Amino acid sequence: MSGPSFRIGLGRDLHRLVPGRRFLLAGVEIPSESGELGHSDGDVLAHAVTDAVLGAAGLADIGQLFPPSDAQWKDADSMVLLRRAFGLVREAGWRLSNLDCVVVCEKPKLLPWRDAIRASLAAALDVEAADVFVKGKTNEKVDAIGEGLAVDATAVCLLERAKP
Ligand code: MG
C-alpha cells in the first residue's frame, strides 16, 4: 500500500455536567453527583477518542457520522459509536499504535477508575491496555470546569498501516 505508514490524530470534547445524568468515561460509569449532558449518553472521552481516530485516518468527524439531529443517536451508547467509527478506520487499512488521553474535571477523582477506562478503550480499539493511557487532571478550580460545571477530554492517537 502506498502513502504514509503512520498518521497522528487529535480529538477534543467538552460536556456540561448536570445532576441526574450518568458520569461516563469510555463506557465506565463513575459514581458522581452529576454527569454529562448530551444528545447521546454524553461520554466525553469516547467522543474525543472517536474524533482522534477518525481524524488520523482523514475520514470524518463524529458529528458527520452521528449527527445530533438524527433521532437514532439519542441516548446512544458512545462506545458503540466508537467501535463503529474505528471499524471504518480499520477498513481504510489502519491499526492503532497507541492512544493517549487527558480528562479534565474538578471531581470525581479518576485514578481509581483508570485501569477500567484503559481496558475499555483497548477492547474497543483492538489493542492491549498498555497501548492506551489516560490521565485525570483538575482545572485548579478555574473557569467552568473548575466550578464543576463541565468535563473536558483530549485524545491523541497514532495509527499505523495494518499488515496486509
Ligand atoms: Mg460530545
What would your notes on this structure say?
It is a single chain. This protein is an alpha+beta fold. It has a single domain (6-161), classed as 60s Ribosomal Protein L30, Chain: A. It contains five helices and seven strands. It has helices at 44-57, 62-65, 78-91, 114-125, 143-146; strands spanning 6-19, 24-25, 28-29, 34-36, 94-104, 132-137, 150-161. Bound molecules: magnesium ion (MG).
What is the topological layout?
Elements: E1 6-19, E2 24-25, E3 28-29, E4 34-36, H1 44-57, H2 62-65, H3 78-91, E5 94-104, H4 114-125, E6 132-137, H5 143-146, E7 150-161
Parallel strand pairs: 5-6
Antiparallel strand pairs: 1-4, 1-7, 2-3, 5-7
Helix pairs in contact: 1-3
Summarize this structure briefly.
With 164 residues, this protein is an alpha+beta fold. It is built from 5 helices and 7 strands; from the N terminus they run E-E-E-E-H-H-H-E-H-E-H-E.
